[in-house]
Structure formats: structure tokens, C-alpha cells
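Inverse folding, one chain.
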């Protein structure tokens, strides 16, 4: 007997629109945090710089979810918000408005938690494999930011 696969699921194709990708990333991160027993607080309304907050007992951590992608042995993610219209592109830092980036990388199915102060202000990289030039200093190793199992 084969695996059950409903017809409606066979025809489903994920959208690549940035909003849809972001929503999938947020759902995956949220599920991982809840699975680990963390208390997640969801904001009311739409004008928040953070996606949700973590209640860690004596404080709340404001979390911004990001989708990472593999790039030359690193997980690359935007550490700023980017909006555009027909006239210009607006980039804005998260400094002072969030405490933590939670990054999901679909290519390795891993979630990373990066304090905002440890990310650059534009794009951030977490190194998965050793660099070709043998550099050892100043590297943010992805393994140091992985959510524990």
C-alpha cells in the first residue's frame, strides 16, 4: 500500500512572493520555538518592528524572523528591513527595536538565533563551512547560533 497523498496536495506549489516566503519562515520558526517549550507572545496589530516576543521569565525578547539562504558556505540574511516603491528603496536598521533575529534557512532546514548586536546593520552571514582562504578570526560560526535540539 502506497503513501496517501490527496489530490489537493499534489497540485500545491509554494509561492515565491517575499511576503509568502516570510510568512512560511515565521511559521516554521514559531513552531520550532513552541516545540521546545518556549512561551511566545504575539503582538496585536500590524505596526510592530518585531514578529513576536519570547517570555524568558524575567524579560521579554523581541524577535524578528528572517529567511536565510546558502551563499558560498554561509547562511546569508538581511539584518535590515527593505521596502521599495517606484521611486526609491528604503532600508531601515532594527537596532534598538528588536533583541533577536531568528533565521530559518530552507536549504539546510536549520533555525538560528542571532542577537541583534551580533549582526551587522545590513546583511549578516553565519559561516557553515570553513572559508577557502583559511581565515579563522572574526567568523560567526553558524553552529554557535543553532537552536539546540
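Residues assigned per position:
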Amino acid at each position: 500500500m502506497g503513501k496517501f497523498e490527496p489530490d489537493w496536495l499534489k497540485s500545491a506549489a509554494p509561492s515565491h512572493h517575499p511576503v509568502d516566503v516570510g510568512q512560511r519562515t515565521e511559521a516554521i520558526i514559531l513552531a520550532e520555538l513552541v516545540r521546545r517549550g518556549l512561551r511566545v507572545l504575539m503582538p496585536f496589530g500590524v505596526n510592530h518592528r518585531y514578529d513576536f516576543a519570547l517570555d524568558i521569565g524575567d524579560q521579554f525578547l523581541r524577535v524578528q524572523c528572517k529567511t536565510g539562504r546558502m551563499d558560498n558556505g554561509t547562511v546569508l540574511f538581511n539584518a535590515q528591513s527593505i521596502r521599495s516603491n517606484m521611486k526609491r528603496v528604503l532600508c531601515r536598521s532594527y537596532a534598538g527595536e528588536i533583541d533577536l533575529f531568528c533565521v530559518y534557512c530552507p536549504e539546510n532546514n536549520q533555525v538560528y538565533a542571532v542577537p541583534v548586536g551580533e549582526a551587522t546593520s545590513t546583511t549578516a552571514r553565519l559561516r557553515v563551512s570553513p572559508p577557502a582562504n583559511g581565515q579563522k578570526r572574526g567568523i560567526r560560526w553558524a553552529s554557535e547560533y543553532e537552536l539546540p535540539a
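The chain has two helices and ten strands. The chain has one domain: 15-144.
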